[in-house]
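This entry is passed on directly below:
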Amino acid sequence: MDGSSILDTFQAQMFLGDKQYQRINVSIPQGTNIPLDDCSQIQTMENLSKSAQ
């Protein structure tokens, strides 16, 4: 998965520029269940990313 994420990051930076794209890898606490296709969890993911910064 690292190779894929590196390519995704490179492509996003090429399209958006360095100032418009920021990748944050957040460790999700054990017991937190966030399905990949559950957009109702966006606020939870935002909160986790803010606490990681």
